Each structure stands twice: as structure tokens, then as C-alpha cells.
Amino acid sequence: MENAIKEVDVAIIGNGPSAITLSYMLSGYTPYYHPTDPPEDDLLHLRLANQDYKCVPITEMNLRNLSDGLEGRTSNPVALVLDQLCHPYADTGYPKLSSQLRWVKEEKRAINHIVIGRNSRPGGVWQKVQGDLKTLSRSSWMQLPDLPFTQYLKEKKGTGDIIASGDRADVCQVTRYYEEYVKEKALSSNFLNSCLVTSVEKVRMSPQIINEDTGEMEGDAVENIWEVSIKRLESSTDGFPQSFRVRAKNIVLATGTSDIPNVLGVPGEDLKFIRHGVSKVSAALHHINNETRCNPVLVIGAGLSAADAIITARKNNCNVVHVFRETPCGNPAQMLKSLPRAIYPEYVMMYELMCGDVTVDWYKPYPQYAVKAFIDKNRVRLESLQGRSEIIDVSLALVQIGSNADLSFMPSQGTNLGVVPGMKIEVKHNVVDVDPFTSESVIEKGLYAMGPLIGDNFVRFLKGGAMAITQHIQMKNGVINM
Predict the structure, then answer these.
(1) In this structure, which long-range contacts are made by residues 98-102, counting pairs with CB atoms below 8 Å and at least 24 apart in sequence?
(2) What's the whole-number mean pLDDT along residues 21-37?
(3) What contacts 63, CB < 8 A, 6 or more positions away?
(4) Radius of gyration for the chain, computed over Cα atoms and rounded to the nearest angstrom
(5) Neighbouring residues of 206: CB distance < 8 A, sequence distance ≥ 6
């Protein structure tokens, strides 16, 4: 069974919130407009009210028409529609209103699919983030369709009343929520976890059809099928061998953009005292060499991941040296400044430390400095933008300068899929180029992308990409006619 083949309509690569949301919709869960409160956008309400919305689901409506004129914190037009219906008045400070959608399980709309993820449990990158950190988004914005986050906490953990809708949740709570969501919505049979996609290629198949009159095999038509090669990272009892293939008419890239941490590209960066990316922070801090523990932890970067690393380091009673190229008023540190103190006190505190407005004995900033080299015996050579050089001793170096998607399994590593062809996919500079109303690649038919790969970096907006993909594939399969 080493080369066993499974055939499905849709193969989803990634098992984070994007993939979970899409699996939910492809499983036949269907949204109907269910107005219970005053609408945020009168025009959207009128467009929905002019249709038989009690009988016609959102997936059978014209998404382009529904989204016309809507504005919000994403450029994804379908995400704007779903956001206004799922989170009415989310950005206005208006008291929280309930979702305007009613989800109904309709088996006739289900699409055969499989979700392939390298993480051992559903949740994607959330399985790797330090659990005692707080989410950036409000707790209600972290939830997936038809399972309010606070309701989950109250029913499963008995703690739902301690988190108001505008409060932030602990990352460990969100991680458990995503795992439980898959079970609660009976999606587990669609998930292949701890599986690494090693290659994806388009193959030409000639379907053989039996002639009812002659009983002979016929069929000259050729269709393109995606063939996904998969290697298990852990043993399992689900019946699949260690290596196998999946053939799918459609493929969805839902990997996120956190698999490959960015590097500085300086000498010595492969030394053992250096760690890259958010997933390595906690474990590295717990295993600092006793001989160097008296030295500070070096954190490099000026964004949220660097701030989180500093906060985690302090929780482990470590002193911190912080190196960042920008002034505190420049990007990405400027984002820390823009956050309200009442909701994000730890990030505002970090910004004040970076600026020197607040000083503490455990933190030393090096603004407008860069790492020039890592040296043996846990030493680092720094250089300012003015040319001043300094060598410091550290116990650990945490490089927190962002990350990118791992699309090494795609032909040409996915460089043909971006808005800028020939350039690797990057969340800031070159997202996957898709039709905004179908989320299908403009280059490769039958290939879709969603989530951070197309610029939707917040869980709150993932439903839009999932809705666009679901509608388009249901139309191709004849499930709906529009």
C-alpha cells in the first residue's frame, strides 16, 4: 500500500483555522440570513431582504452584488459580507450583537474533501505559539462559524463568563477551541494530521466510461487532476500507509505564512544559541545553557513577535537585550504605539521601553542597530547605523523578523502564483493572485488559496475565502445553479 491513492473532489493543504473553516462549509453547513438586530449596512440588508433569504442560502446569492460598496478592515469583498453578518458593528464600539447568520447542515451540498496538515492536531500555527500569551484580536473575533467562543468556554470549561466579548483570550484557550471545534462539528474524519505534503503536480487523466450498449470502455476526454504526494510524520491507525497520494479535482492552499522564519543572512547564524521564529521561543528559554544563563537574552526585531518573545523571556526571569534597526517611531514598531493601553497594556509598555520613556533594570534597547555577525561562545557583534560597533555576550539569540509560507511542494515553489510572477509568495509583498469572488488562482484553474496567503491575516476574515471557494466548487459540481 506504499503508493495507495485516495481520490477526492477537494484537497486542502494546511490544518489551521482557514482549513477548518473551509472544511466546515464543504461538509454541507450552509448559511442563511437571519436578521435579529438592526443591520450595520442598510444596503446589504436590502439586497438580502429582496431575496427569499429564508429559503435561499448566502451561497446561492451573487457575492459580487452583496459586497458592492462595503468597507472594512480587509480588501477581500466576500470577507466584508461575512464579517458584517457574523460580527455586526465590530469596529464601531457598538454593543455586541449576535450573528445574523443561521447555519444549517444540508448533506446534499456536501463536497468530498480531505484536509492535510503537518501539525499533529488541528489549529495550525496556533499549536506552536506560547500558550500563556494573549491573542491580538478580541476573543469573539477568534471564533469559527456557529460556535461562539465564550459559549464554548462556558460549556466545555465552565469559564465562559470570565471573558467578555471585547476581551482577549489566552492562546491556549484558542488552541483548545480549534481542536474541539473539529470534534464538535464532526469534521475529524476529513483531517489527516501529522502529514507532510512533499509534492503537488497536475496530471492529465483520461476518464474511462463504459458504453451501455457495447459494454466497451470509451473516453477520449482529458481532465487535469491535482496529485498530492504525502509522507506521514507520525504513525496512525486511520488506514493510510506511511507514504501515499491524493488525487483531487481541486486543491486549496491554506498553509498560512508561518512555516519558514526569516533569517538575517549574517555570518554565524547557524550557531546553536540562535533560534528563529515564534515556535522556538518557549522551548529555547527553558533550555538555556547553565554556563551562559547569567547573560541576557538577545531579541532581534521590532514587531509583535519580538514583543511577545521579550514578554515570554521576562516571564522566565531573563534579562533582555533588544536590537532593532528602526527608530521606535518607525514600522513595524509603530503598530505597538497605535494599540490602546486599556486592551494591550503589555504592548504599550514594550513601546515605551523601546523609546526609553520607561527604563527597567532587566531591559536594554539598541535602537537603530543591526546584528553583523554571531560569534562562538555566545557572542554577537552589533553595529549602529552610524557605524559604531559593539560585541555583547548573550545566553540566547531569538530572531523575530517575520516568516513566510513554505510552498516548496508546489511546482516552481509557487513563484508563478503571485501577484508579481517569478517572486516568492510573501504576505507583505506578493500574495497569491486570486479572483476575489472565487478565491481561485488567476494562473491555475482548480487551484485556490485563502487566509494569509491572499492577505487575510486575521481569523475574523477567513470565512470570506471559505465562502467564495465553497460557492465556486458547488457551482462546478452542479450542487447549485446560478
Answers:
(1) 98/36, 98/37, 99/34, 99/146, 100/33, 100/34, 100/35, 100/36, 100/37, 100/39, 101/31, 101/32, 101/33, 101/34, 101/58, 101/145, 101/146, 102/31, 102/32, 102/33, 102/34
(2) 94
(3) 77, 78, 81, 437, 467, 468, 471
(4) 24
(5) 219, 220, 221, 222
Cα(363)–Cα(306) distance, integer angstroms: 13
Which one, of 341, 347, 306, lies nearest residue 326 by Cα?
A: 306
CA dist., res. 458 & res. 18, Å (int): 10
Composition of the chain by helix, strand, coil, percent to 5:
30, 25, 45
Structure confidence at residue 54 as a pLDDT band (50, 70, 90) = confident
Burial status of residue 272 (CB atoms within 10 A of its CB: 0-12, 13-18, 19 or more): exposed
Q: If you count DSSP H runs as helices and E runs as strands, how many of each does the chain have, helices first?
A: 11, 23
Under DSSP, is residue 161 helix (H, G, I), strand (E, B) or coil? helix
Is the CB of residue 373 less than 8 Å from the CB of residue 332? no
- Please, what is the angle between helix 42-49 and helix 77-86, to 10°? 90
C-alpha span between 209 and 218 (Å, rounded): 5
When pLDDT is averaged across residues 82-103 and rounded to a whole number, the result is 82
Farthest CA pair distance, the chain: 88
Q: Strand ranges (DSSP E) for 152-285?
A: 168-170, 191-192, 195-205, 209-210, 217-218, 223-232, 243-253, 260-261, 274-276
CA pair distance 83, 460, nearest whole angstrom: 7
pTM: 0.91
Q: Residue 160: what pLDDT?
A: 47
The CA distance from 214 to 212, in Å, is: 6
Integer angstrom CA distances of residue 477 from 10, 111, 178, 209, 470? 11, 8, 29, 18, 10
Which residues on neighbouring strands pair with residue 225, listed in sequence order?
203
Q: Count the neighbouring beta carbons within 10 Å of the beta carbon of residue 19.
A: 32
Closest alpha carbon to 439 in 202, 248, 252: 252
